[in-house]
Amino acid sequence: MRVTQGMLTANLLRNLNSSNARLSKLQEQLYTQRKISRPSDDPVVALKGMAYRTNLTEVEQYRRNLTEMYNWMDNSEAGLEQANAIFQRTRELVVKASNLGTHDQDDLEKIKAEISQLKESLYDVANTQVAGKYIYNGTNVTTPPAKKEGDEIIFTSEGGQPFKIEVSKGVSIEASINAANVFGDAFKTFEQLEQKLIGADVEEIEDLEINSFITSFQGHIDSMLAERAELGARYNRVELVEDRLSNQEVIAHTILKENEGADMERVITELKMQETIHRAALSVGARVIQPSLVDFLR
Length: 298
Description:
The protein is mainly alpha-helical. It contains 9 helices and 6 strands; from the N terminus they run αααββββββαααααα.
């Protein structure tokens, strides 16, 4: 077969294009630090990468869910702490009222006023909101659980089901508490105590038998402590889940990098070799296409 100058030139251009493409590919890997930039580069790597990336996305979403879980539980704990302080203070006031002398009418009036304010404070706690959601009303987060009907406060807790947050695949943990155990009867106790004290004076205190409210408020304190203990146990479980998700996230990143990440030492070495080959090809090509018939006729 006769090899013409045009064939040599076409061959040279084709090989130079292939060399340029190889250089471009290696430079792209060096810049992106990834083996592939499109699925067609390696369909197997791309398919595995989709699965690994989906897993990583799920883990990252669950970690965001944990942030919401911690926010919910921390605010629940803060509310219970405030409720505990209210119950403790009310119990102290009942003890103080039951031991007033016949000349302490002013003190009794002050006790009545403070008990009324403590009830209002408990109302505020029961209607605590986090990001616009009522945290003490189960899944019914848009409705306040404590409502006022005249001077009476009623804790309805119409949420029904506990509010849960998914923290890992197929695992949901309750973020709310059983608020009825804390607030349900507490407002009734306050109402009964206020009814006893309305219009009463120190001479009638002994006849009112308000000592029974000491036991009542102690019962509310015990119920609140039980809910705090349950909340604390769930908090510990959430921390264990967070540790597991942290490990899963690290592993997912590692697997994804091993699957799609380029071996930078190999890429740099091959790039240097390809640059040398490309320069040599250009040098040889320049000599191949340079001679012509005119050169030989001189």
